Amino acid sequence: MRVLVVEDTADLAEGIVMRLAQSGIACDLADCLQAARDFFAVQDYDAIVLDINLPDGSGRSFLRDIRAAGDRTPVLMLTALISVDDRVSALDLGADDYLVKPFDQRELEARIRALVRRDAEQKSDQVVLGPLTYSPASQSAVLDGQRLDLTRREAALLNVLIRHQGQYVTKTRLYDSLFTFNDADVGLNAIELYIARLRKKLAGSAVTISTQRGVGYNIGLDG
After folding, report:
1. 28 closest CA partner among 12, 38, 39, 42
2. Cis geometry, peptide bond prior to residue 102 (ω within 30 degrees of 0)
3. How distant, in Å, are the alpha carbons of 37, 48, 89, 103, 117 from that of 100?
4. Of 24, 28, 36, 69, which residue is least crowded by CB atoms under 10 Å?
5. Quick check: helix, strand or coil at residue 75?
6. d(CA 89, CA 106)
7. Please, how many CA atoms are within 13 Å of residue 130, restricted to the half-sphere of its CB?
8. How does pLDDT run across 69-78, given as a tens digit for each residue?
9. Is 210 helix (H, G, I), strand (E, B) or coil?
């Protein structure tokens, strides 16, 4: 999962990015509207965390623009404003949820995951594929009754594959879900390494990761 965080308060923004990164969520951080627009112009996101008050304008204008363009990326607004009118205004513009500052980082993470599940019409936090069960909230997987030992990025990769089971996911899409613009030193071929590691940990089970050259990777059941 990759999230755009638009927040100009440095300590809060860094805390959000650190918390989400620990949960396997790749984050790009924009400290103003222009940076947010620049990121959004070249990258697709699973969700956006958007502050209302920014140094070069209101987050509402960014929300208004992306909704006017037909983009339905889930947006969670952050606001220090507590009046009902302010909250209603954000929701009417197309926000999917909001949090009033200060907030608990655990709640922010839970709300982001809920928005992504809702967007994917996935009701349960756990995703099941035959003998494999994956829980994004805990970044944990159980295969044939045994918990898999996964690194943070292996878990993030499995999350993307299993959420798109039955579909081939391109190497670029997988890369974009695991790495941010700050990881520019990591090449696209790193995905092949993580795929190989996952295959090794799934070996001997009914769950397989197949490759279609020029198309991507697909997780499914053998046979």
Report:
1. 39
2. yes
3. 23, 16, 14, 7, 22
4. 69
5. strand
6. 25
7. 14
8. 999 999 999 9
9. strand
